[in-house]
Amino acid sequence: MSQKILIVGAGFAGVWGALGAARVLDGAGVRSSDVEVTLISPKPELEIRPRMYEAEPQNMAAPLLPLFDAIGVKYVAGSVDAISVQDKTVSVVSANGQKHSLAYDRLLLTSGSKLSRPPIPGLEHAFSVDRIEDAVELDAHFDALAKLPASTARNTVAVVGCGFTGIEVATELPKRLREKFGAHADVRVVVIGSQDSIGPDLGPNPRPFIAEAFESLGVQTVLGSGVVSVDAQGVRTASGQHIEAGTVIWAGGMRASPLAAHVSSHIDPLGRAEVAADLRVPEAPHVFVAGDVARALTDDEGHYALMSCQHAMVMGQFGGHNAAADLIGIPTLPYRQPFYATCVDLGDWGAVYSEGWDRQMKLTHAEGKARKQMINTKWIYPPAPNRAEALAAGNPQASFG
């Protein structure tokens, strides 16, 4: 009977985890009949989630079956709703609601994260760009608004959240709205945040450029007072201000998949599982965790991985490598990713690109935009379904970035 490696999730960590596991087995000459690698997800595609703020979000997915066929990875359609580390099984729910159980010898959990939706009254009125279906719904909403007479409410979008996602959404909106409403439409984009500054987690270096982009694009800010309610006419802040808007977009931060708590009792405030250096769960040694569900040190300086595709891809390579290596008796590798870069899209203004955790500015304006487009259209996509190229992409010691 073959041994089984299960990968839960087809996000960046899951896809690169499959590449990493397949590479180890191929290098060791292990036949697929002896060790099966199976990835479980609702759809056999990678959502290019970092691009959901862009136009045409329905096109932001990469098919995975040809790639999996090339590297000998099996695919199971469904959602995992429970994990038993004692029985070494996962419970899978198919699209029609039927449940079945799959056993594993090693598990790589890469179930990702979702937009955090706190119990704010009326939040159901808000749109988001968390997933393809969310971004498509928002795009259809703009199409519907374009058929209505121009008004202040129709032409106003309130973006709640002044972090990475909120900034990219807001700076892309003036162009998108004028494409929908007309080139000379008087559009208004307002970014609302409880913090006192835009991009508080980005540090001081990129902030002047972001402020310049906001001013250039006409993006307004309401800071220092969070949103306490949402309705069909806009939002109300803690200070009592009501901002009239026909569209509200929620960009209020992320939370890890609840499956992290199924494999570990040590969960951080973002819902991520604490992992050892090789991404193993100490209390469940047959389980490895990577991507947005893992709280993992990236270096010896005390920096932890962020919920980003940059970290998820490399963690996936290490996680897949280590799950397969541990199964066949090869030493695992400590996850390390000392290089860190940040690239923030700022719409028609351009983009800013920095390197290091202290975010030393390297590229801005058009040069930054060119780097962002390279990241968004090339670097974060899976490799071609060519076996040699795909297996090489799973090498954690030759990581992108």
TrEMBL record:
Keyword Flavoprotein listed: yes
What are the FAD/NAD(P)-binding domain coordinates in residue numbering? 4-316
Instruction: Name the InterPro entries for this protein.
Output: FAD/NAD-bd_sf (IPR036188), FAD/NAD-binding_dom (IPR023753), NADH-Q_oxidoreductase (IPR051169)
Q: Which SUPFAM superfamilies match?
A: FAD/NAD(P)-binding domain (SSF51905)
GO BP term (any one)? aerobic electron transport chain
Required co-factors: FAD
Determine the domain of life of the protein's source.
Answer: Bacteria
Tell me a Gene Ontology molecular-function term this record carries: NAD(P)H dehydrogenase (quinone) activity
Question: Which intervals of the chain form a coiled coil?
Answer: none
User: Gene3D superfamilies from the xrefs?
Assistant: 3.50.50.100
Q: What keywords would UniProt list here?
A: FAD, Flavoprotein, Oxidoreductase, Plasmid
Q: Which family does it belong to?
A: Belongs to the NADH dehydrogenase family.
Question: What's the protein name?
Answer: FAD-dependent pyridine nucleotide-disulphide oxidoreductase
Taxonomic lineage from the root: Bacteria, Pseudomonadati, Pseudomonadota, Betaproteobacteria, Burkholderiales
